[in-house]
Specification:
By secondary structure, the protein is of the alpha/beta class. The chain has three domains: about 70 residues, no CATH class; about 250 residues, Aspartate Aminotransferase, domain 2 (3-Layer(aba) Sandwich); about 110 residues, Aspartate Aminotransferase, domain 1 (Alpha-Beta Complex). Helices cover about 40% and strands about 15% of the residues. The strands form four sheets. A seven-stranded mixed beta sheet has the order 3-11-10-9-8-4-7, with helices on both faces. A hairpin with a 3-residue loop joins strand 12 and strand 13. The N and C termini lie far apart (about 55 Å). It binds pyridoxal-5'-phosphate. Pyridoxal-5'-phosphate binds next to helix 8 and strand 9.
Length: about 475
């Protein structure tokens, strides 16, 4: 058996390895490359000393190991992917895709920009000032601000208006949304004291009228991601507003979805809007910026000016503020809604896509990739409205190993994210850019060509019963929609 001391002596020197790896140095820098090479050599030495190896790895192997370490420690920025899941606001895919105008605004603001400079006077401008009128008009509110996200807007409201005091919430609304938005925990973090009223299925206005001893605020939270059915009861926002007025405390409505005003679309059902909540008597309404608003991650807070200003003046507002890139994206998106060009906001363009056009696209995709069209549904997603579904055509592609096909598509260039269910791969044209349809068809055909069933007739390789891990917030959503 070889003497381990010989093997140890055969381990190459770091400078020799470094010289053989100019590509790594160029890509990751010298210090990082040296550290990774050192890590690889140290691991090899430990293997020899522990008897896990008897010969020193050759230099090329050590360089390859160093490269693996570097790729693991230097993950690239998020990559653009094609969304064929049919989930319009896919949380795992970054929720709302930004409009072309919002992307251009982000690019414009990325360098030096006038986010806090008044170009007329040369003096300091207020960051929120340019957003306030856009937000207020879009929500039909007296005043409005935007912060990091809806969770932040809620924390800010509670801290600024109810710090150390009581907040009334129905037991039926103590929700968890998107895996980490848990109302009781947010309440705790804000310093407000939660007073639960009513029961899980029934809460009446009289419950709000009687509860608490030091009440600062009444909070209504939209049950975005689940439905109560059966024997249920809850006061509408108008009845709650009356209680709030009688008790002399503000009523705050977390509407969640980012719907600015009612649109009358059937698939929206009774989804509350910012304008509707305020019109029905809420003093403040809050929502997300990257759900139905179709903008960047943000939290909107709109309503009575005195309350909005109190929130904006709270020290926490500074910690929760938007950066210039999101100010730019949100501003551009609000301009589009206010100019009645919501269809230019991708989420709305997708949700309102013309059925005939969708059908033609689905048929073309099916023909090119060897599948067939079925009537299905697309989901709004985003943890905002899981059972809000829009009917439309979907392409079914049968495969012997649909999960393997989906995995190949995730590694395509660019990655294509599909849904797997019922032993088939499903492609929803609604969430795909029409301009990419031909390229998508090629990606699908290539991935399916490697499926074992590809040699048999199209559709003959179906393996019923294989389903994907459906999204936590919707049976048709895979990968997880939130
Ligand atoms: C989605 C949602 C939230 C959380 O929104 P973020 O912007 O992700 O913080 C809060 N409340 C409701 C009702 C929601 O639907």
């Amino acid at each position: 058996m070889a003497d381990p001391r010989d093997a140890l002596a055969a381990l190459p020197r770091i400078d020799a390895l470094l010289e053989s790896a100019p590509a790594l140095v160029a890509r990751y820098g010298r210090a990082s490359t040296v550290a990774a090479l050192r890590g690889a050599v140290t691991a090899a030495r430990e293997d020899l000393l522990a008897g896990r190896a008897t010969t020193a790895p050759d230099p090329a192997t050590l360089v390859a190991q160093a490269e693996q370490r570097l790729t693991a420690r230097r993950p690239p920025p998020p990559r653009a992917v094609r969304n064929a899941t049919g989930v319009v606001l896919h949380t795992n895919l970054g929720r709302a895709p930004l409009s072309a105008a919002a992307r251009a605004a982000v690019a414009e603001a990325a360098g030096s920009c006038d986010v806090e400079l008044d170009l007329d006077t040369g003096g300091r401008g207020r960051r929120g000032a340019r957003l306030a009128p856009l937000l207020a008009d879009a929500c039909r509110a007296e005043d409005a601000i935007a912060v990091n996200n809806a969770a932040a807007a809620l924390v800010l409201v509670l801290a600024a208006l109810a710090g150390g005091r009581e907040v009334l919430v129905s037991r039926g609304e103590l929700v968890e949304i998107g895996g980490s938005f848990r109302l009781p925990e947010i309440m705790g973090a804000s310093g407000a004291r939660l007073v639960e009223v009513g029961t899980t299925n029934k809460t009446r206005a009289s419950d709000y009228a009687a509860a608490g001893t030091d009440v600062a605020l009444i909070l209504k939270v939209h049950r975005s991601n689940f439905r109560l059915t059966g024997f249920t009861e809850e006061p509408d926002i108008g009845a709650l507003a009356e209680v709030a007025r009688a008790r002399g405390v503000p009523l705050v409505h977390d509407v969640g979805s980012g719907l600015l005003a009612e649109t009358g679309e059937a698939w929206l059902g009774d989804e509350p809007s910012m304008a509707g909540a305020l019109a029905h008597g809420a003093d403040l309404a809050l929502c997300s910026g990257d759900k139905l608003l179709g903008g960047p991650q943000a939290g909107l807070l709109a309503g009575r000016s005195d309350l909005v200003r109190t929130c904006d003046g709270h020290p926490m507002a500074r910690a929760l503020r938007l950066d210039k890139l999101r100010v730019a994206a949100l501003s551009a998106t609000l301009h589009q809604h206010l100019a009645e060009r919501s269809e230019d906001v991708p989420a709305w363009g997708m949700l309102r896509a013309d059925p005939a056009t969708l059908n033609a696209r689905a048929r073309a995709l099916a023909a090119a990739a060897g599948g067939h069209v079925e009537e299905g549904t697309s989901l709004v997603g985003g943890g905002s409205a899981p059972d809000r579904a829009v009917p439309g055509p979907v392409v079914r592609l049968d495969a012997a190993q649909p999960e393997a096909v989906a995995a190949r598509l995730r590694h395509a260039e660019p990655p294509l994210v599909v849904r797997v269910a019922d032993g088939a791969v499903w492609v929803d044209p609604r969430t795909l850019d029409p301009a990419a349809d031909e390229a998508v068809a090629t990606q699908l055909a290539e991935a399916l060509a490697q499926d074992p069933a590809a040699s048999s007739a199209p559709g003959a390789g179906s393996t019923p019963g294989s389903t994907s891990g459906a999204g936590s917030e919707g049976p048709a959503a895979g990968p997880a929609a939130s």
